[in-house]
Amino acid sequence: MNKWGIRHQVFLLALVPTLCIALLLSAYFTSLRIHDLEQNFRERGLTIALKLIADSEYGVFTQNKTLLQNLAYKAMKEPDLKSIAFYTAEGSPLISVGTSTVSFTLPSAKNRNQGSFIQQSSTTLALITPIAILQDVEHLPSDLQQKKTRIGWLKVELDSTAIHLSEYQILINTGMILLLGLSISGLHALHMGRNVTRPILELAQAVERIRKGDLNTRIRTSVYPELQALETGINAMTESLQNAQTELKNKVKTATASLRTSLETIELQNLELDHARRVAEAASRVKSEFLADMSHEIRTPLNAIVGFINLFKKTSLNVKQSEYLSVLIKSSNTLLSIINDILDFSKIEAGKLTIERIPMNIQECVEDCLNLLMPHASDKSLALLPMIYSDLPTHVMADSLRIKQVLTNLVTNAIKYTEQGSIIVRVMLEREYQGKALIRISVTDTGIGLSNLEQQELFQAFHQIKNGINQKFAGTGLGLVISKKLVEQMNGEIGLESELGKGATFWFTFEVDCLRSTPFIPTISQSSSNEPLFTSPLNILVVDDNPENLHLIDVILRDLGISTKTASSGQAAVQAYYDAPNDYHIIFMDIRMPGMNGIEATQNIRLFEKQQDIKPVPIIALTAHALISEREALLKANIDDCMTKPIDEQTLYNIIRKWSVTRSPLPVFDQDLGIKLAGGKKDLAKELLTKLLNSLPDDLDQIQQTYAEKDWEKLRDLVHRLHGACCYCGVPTLKKCANKLESAIATRTLNIIHPRFEEFKQAINDLLHLKNTQPDNYFN
Fold it and tell me: How far is it, in rounded angstroms, from Cα 405 to Cα 355?
């Protein structure tokens, strides 16, 4: 109703009451008139019937049909009379005149003394009246010695068509009168509504013109007194707005001149800011290039130093040589730690740091870390005490390397800032939920402690604690910043509780996936001296322009029982592969070489393999660059994997195991491999495989959706997580395809990713098909 205009509401206000009253009156008087017509019609029929009864008593009594017929013919002259019929007392017909449409029905015995009966159809009114005579009764008193005796029945039918026509005529006349009255009332309502709404519409139109900026508008209409105040107010408002606009234009003109001057100043500042931004971007590129160059220049000789130190450590040494060697090992590890801190910080700034999730033993992880740091604590006569709580879930899925990195940083700091007393490392279960656990590790020392101001600044980059004589302890000041970022990526928190001069407690939490048993991770030391490390002979081509590094890798590989061939340049490596393309199982390729670098050499080898239809040989990059962008560029150049210098024997062994089966056909599921990776524990192998198979359908759906969205960063994280889960389940085909897809995603090139993605999906479907066809027969 609120949506209707004033004109409509005035129209309804004038019309609706009139309509209601007219309808009620018309209905009342029409029904009354129709009722009178019908009542008169029945009374006329009853009058005719009573007259015939009086004239026909003798004829009915004597059953003189001739007399009755004459009476009937005379009565038929009455208008609307349709038929007359006489019947005996028992209902037998005597005579009938006219056209009868209503059949005669003898009333029931109970109703025969009730007088006349009426039977009515759509066009006929039938009156059935009893015919009776008086009879004397001698034995009754004188005032009751007469009673009526029924001798027959009279049926009179009247045609009601005329009365119906009269009723229709009444209805039509009433409707015409009603319509005429409503028309007059409607016209009056429209006229009244127009007179009311016209000035309001004119006011609205004037306000709309004013809204559009026509401030010269003035309202000059003849309106009702009630609206004159509104008209005067609008005109006054318009005049005020016009004056204000004129004043505003003057102010705007002045402000525009001032703004033009300001814009010229801002434009000059924008040019300066743009120049500063370009300088900052150039500085960032220079920083990245500097980190890459320094990483290469430092790691290349450090690789040879660390490698030959490890080889030297295996030889027979006297006491002084062992002492010197310990100093070399400590210095090289310190230098490598500083380089790794700087590069980790660079990765964190670029958002490229990733967390692994592999089977591990928390207790062993903590003990290994503390065993490495125990000599440093002993040098300062400090007690380094581990306290591992009994409810700790020992066997979990997490990133042991990053946990060690955080714990090492905290314990190293505790040793550095503690002169006497003890350092206690507590490892406990914070809470457990939905197959996951939150682990808490705290490191409590009795050192110098921290003030409130130092605690607030502690997790800032390059910040170091100062001792009492205002000298900084050695270090990069990046350890805690890196630890904080690592803990956050492991869905945990890091914090401290400390008072100046009363020691400190650093703590951190991290989330893990729980396992019921411990997995087995093969290492070199777990192989018997009489048992070969690899099941089949391997031949590896090693390429490096640095003679020391080339000799180092060659010695390590030969110690592992692997045949090698060396090349000191890219051209020599390509030629060696051209001469015997099927002899090499793996190629270790240095990247930075004079003349033809490692990427160019790899491209020549890949082109040769494509032309000769040879299955690609795994090419592992040997690089001193540790940045994610460098790794992605190498993977985009069709290099299969990367090793960052310095290289240790265990890392070299692991990557050879990873790629030495590349040219052999891989099964969908390898039972023996699964049991071997689980340390010979069939129950653990089955648990790891079942957990993987149960998660595969959801993982595949999520990976396919992410692939369709072309979200390469998220896709790489999903595939990386699944790749980690495959490493200990005896599913070599899926593991290989996941690794190849992860490398392809790093290129962010659809043409490279798509074929690897199809292979990856097929490997998952093959494994799920095996699950559906042999659901309970993985392990015999």
Answer: 12
Least Cα distance to 57 among 146, 134, 156, 133 occurs for 133
pLDDT of 561 above 90: no
CA distances from 723 to 171, 373, 644, 702, 778 (A): 92, 32, 20, 15, 20
Helical (H) or strand (E) element with 303 = helix 225-313
- What is the rounded distance in angstroms from the CA atom of residue 535 to the CA atom of residue 530? 13
Percent of the chain, pLDDT > 90?
A: 9
Burial class (CB in 10 A: 0-12, 13-18, 19+), 273: exposed
Instruction: Write the single-letter amino acid at 758.
Output: E
Q: Pseudo-torsion of CA 221, 225, 230, 233, nearest 10°?
A: 80
Long-range contacts of 592-596 (CB under 8 A, 24+ apart): 592/296, 592/545, 592/623, 592/624, 593/543, 593/544, 593/545, 593/569, 594/545, 594/569, 595/569, 595/570, 595/571, 596/569, 596/570, 596/571
Interval 88-127: pLDDT, tens: 888 888 898 888 887 877 777 666 666 677 877 778 888 8
Residue 331's CB: how many other CB atoms inside 10 A?
12
Amino acid letter at 213? G
- What integer pLDDT is reported at residue 255 of this predicted model? 86
**CA-closest candidate to residue 620, choices 635, 603, 636, 604:** 635
d(CA 495, CA 509): 9
DSSP code of 472? Answer: B
Question: Sign of torsion, CA 594 595 597 602?
Answer: negative
CB 494 within 8 A of CB 357: no
Reading the block at residue 260, the tokens are 């033009």
CA 79/CA 45 separation, integer angstroms: 10
646-666 per-position pLDDT tens digit: 777 777 887 888 787 544 457
Yes or no: say if 296 and 625 are a contact pair by the CB < 8 Å rule.
Answer: yes
Give the model confidence (pLDDT) of 575-592 as tens digits: 999 988 888 999 999 888
**Residue 778 neighbours by CB under 8 Å, 6+ apart:** 669, 671, 674, 686, 689
Query: Using an 8 Å Cβ cutoff, are 372 and 391 in contact?
Result: no
Q: Is the predicted pLDDT of residue 7 greater than 70, yes or no?
A: no
Query: What's residue 470's pLDDT?
Result: 37
Helix (H) or strand (E) holding 195, with range, is: helix 161-211
**pTM of the predicted model as reported, rounded to 2 decimal places:** 0.45
Which amino acid is located at 133 in the chain?
I
Given the DSSP bridges, would you call strands 586-590 and 539-543 parallel, antiparallel or unpaired? parallel
Average pLDDT over residues 702-729: 86
Sequence-separated contacts (24+) of 755-762 with Cβ below 8 Å: 757/707, 760/719, 760/734, 761/700, 761/704, 762/737
Lowest mean per-residue pLDDT among 168-172, 534-538, 666-670: 534-538
Map residue 507 onto helix, strand or coil: strand
3-state secondary structure of 452: helix
Q: Is the pLDDT of residue 716 over 70?
A: yes
Burial class (CB in 10 A: 0-12, 13-18, 19+), 372: middle
Cis peptide before 618 (omega within 30 of 0): no
| pLDDT mean over 356-374 | 83
The distance in angstroms from the start CA to the end CA of the chain is 81
Tokens for 100? Answer: 């009868």
Query: How far is the CA of 367 from the CAs of 107, 131, 137, 384, 391, in angstroms?
Result: 119, 131, 140, 11, 17
- Chain centre distance of CA 556: 52
Beta-sheet strand order (sheet of 124-136)? 93-98, 81-88, 146-159, 124-136, 117-120
